[in-house]
Design goal:
Elements (H helix, E strand, L loop, with lengths): L5 H16 L23 E2 H9 L2 H17 L11 E2 L3 H12 L3 H14 L7 H10 L5 H4 L5 H13 L7 E4 L3 E4 L4 H20 L1
Helix pairs in contact: 1-9, 4-5, 5-6
Length: 206
Amino acid sequence: MSSAPGATSASDDSKRALHEMGETVRTHVVWRPFQLNPTMPADGMDRTAYLEARFGSLDTFKEMEERLLEAGRGEQILFAFEKIARTPNTFQAHRLIWYAGNQGCQDAVAEQLFQGYFEKGLDIGSVPVLVELADRAGLKVAQFFESEAGLKEVKAEESAGQQLGIRGVPYFVLDKTYGISGAQPVDVFVSAMEKARTSSTTAKGS
């Protein structure tokens, strides 16, 4: 999970690939934490200031924004970047996804986070906002955020991602072997899944 718009549409393409593969593969999807901006202040920063610092000017981002809006419309994703007032620190959101994974509702919580941020402009760095979004997914987390659960685990997984050489999102790892970086078409996912399946079958037979 990160603040990268491409993660939403790329996730849809990976789901299409899984559907295309059908029963030829057995899958278990897990969301792993990776922060694009790990040094972001805990309360985030003004969105305009962030975009100017990262892209040099708002005009540069606007060009990219138009491409993302067009891609989103093709996936029925209604990006509403104009509603985003602050760029959040996403560490607490990653903690929430980690916890949701332990509770068996990771996909539902991740979907609420994406919708809340990209379509409603909610501050997903705010714990009260995260509690509300988790509740919409059927998960009660108020007591969780009062604890230190997940702190070490999320930091460890982020470190593991950096050691794998991951520098951006979305990034997919199949069978702990094949990496797919960026938003890719369905056929790229299918090809990687077939390679992973073949390798796994060969390893079991050796």
